# Entry
Amino acid sequence: MNWMNRFIATTLPAVPKPIVRFFSKKYIAGNTINDAVRTIKNLQEQGCIATVDVLGENIKNLREADKTVHEYLRVLDRIEQEQLNCNVSIKLTQFGLVLDKNRCYENVHKIVESVKTKNNFLRVDMEDSECTTSTLEIFSRFAQEYPENVGIVIQAYLRRSMNDISVLLENVPKLNVRLCKGIYVEPRQIAFKDPAIINYNFMALLEKLFEGGAYVGIATHDERLVWHSQELIRKMKIPHSRYEYQMLLGVDEELRQSIVANGHRLRVYVPYGQKWYAYSLRRLKENPQIAGYVLRGMLHR
Ligand SMILES: Cc1cc2nc3c(=O)[nH]c(=O)nc-3n(C[C@H](O)[C@H](O)[C@H](O)COP(=O)(O)OP(=O)(O)OC[C@H]3O[C@@H](n4cnc5c(N)ncnc54)[C@H](O)[C@@H]3O)c2cc1C
# Structure
């Protein structure tokens, strides 16, 4: 990222919300479940599968968590009714992780039960490093009871991730991991800062996961990582049934199409809902064109 983009990324929270909304439209399916279903059908026509995220994180009270449970149950019903090739992704802070860990577990339990009944799958997204240990704990409890139906996310920028993977491989049956770089701003004691080291670590973690027999969602838009991962898959003779690629809605559709055209399974992360702001900021900060977009938006207000 050049200095201008870095500057804009840091000052994004001061950008008026309508401008943030305008430039982040492509990353979000819309406000409602119908918007998400339409987007998923469209992606399926392009040869992709999907995972749905109901937007919202870091809730202020547990009533909000109840509403989110209800919404995810509706999503699972819709996926079943419409026979979509789609699973769900959740953030534990949506269900009260920071407010009350037990209530969080109980809330998610309701969703996992429905996931199991419907023979679907739930991915627990990984949030900032304050949540890593508790997220892994709750995931591991679910993974013992529902080994076929739950998966976790590991972030390659975290120094602890290699160790976390070793522990998970030892303790979790049928481990299913989404591997990504990681998006939250973390101190250097906790996370690698050098993009090259994050990429080396991504590949080292991927190799460890494949060696350990895990199923991996390779979540990246970094074409270098896509190339290196395909080399690894070829060298280790990893069958298609052991991995998928994953990308975010609205990011690098050209790369997405080329991965699909090469015969790999590709899942698109489809967020929807009213609480679009925090997610949009994270996406805009990662967009290399952000400075140009935002400046143009400001000039044309
Ligand atoms: C399916 C999926 C789920 C994820 N889940 C989590 C999670 O649970 N926890 C977590 O911390 N992180 C999550 N992430 C985010 C991830 O950690 C990275 O922050 C994000 O994917 C960007 O890293 P990258 O590997 O694409 O590489 P980068 O080097 O950041 O990007 C590579 C290239 O992709 C393009 N690109 C990337 N982002 C954008 C954007 N927003 N707009 C336009 N172009 C872009 C650019 O061309 C860029 O040069 C997820 C990512 C994906 C794909």
Summary: The chain has two domains: 1-28+277-301, 30-275.
